[in-house]
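Hey, I'm writing a tutorial for new members on how sequence and structure tokens pair up, and I'd like a real worked example in the thread rather than a made-up one. If someone can provide the structure for the chain below, I'll link this post from the tutorial.
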Amino acid sequence: MYRLKDDEILFVFTGPHGAGRKTVAEMSGATLGVKQVLSYTTRPPRPTEVEGQDYRFISPVEFFNAQSKGEFLEVMQTDSHFYGVKSQDVANMLHDRGSAFLILNAEGATKLKDLYGDKLVRIMIYVDRKTLVQRMKENGESDADIERYNSHYDSSVAYRSECEHSFENVDLAHTVFDLTKTLDTYLNRNLVDMD
């Protein structure tokens, strides 16, 4: 396991699928120069996903081979697919930048919090269930997928009380603005508030 140095920090974005956690993380990260460490998964890409941009899509054989070598910091299974974050990827990103973010579910966020303690900050991005379903329909998600993701909604949002910060993503611009200010308190980039 990679041990974080005093000036290094990890952010983990969590929350229900469709709440916009990836979008707000990327937009705030772009402003602050914080990049994502991608997870590896055995599931096939969705139509809108791109290899190396959303996930590292690998076969179950590749995944279990890496797992047997102890390459993953955490491994979890959701809906019969496996996900994991490689320790070396975290180490490389922190060596290059001093900070990084990951997008994980509550189980993965908890595992990494147990490993890194105060050096890891969990950020919940959420919306109410009705808004979530509406967004998934607008994105062309199938009824079966909406129902499957919706079945995880309550447990995802319940994790909010465990997170260091939470943001209801009703208005994307406001969420990103508030999130960026919050991340900056950890990074000490001293962004200027022009209000």
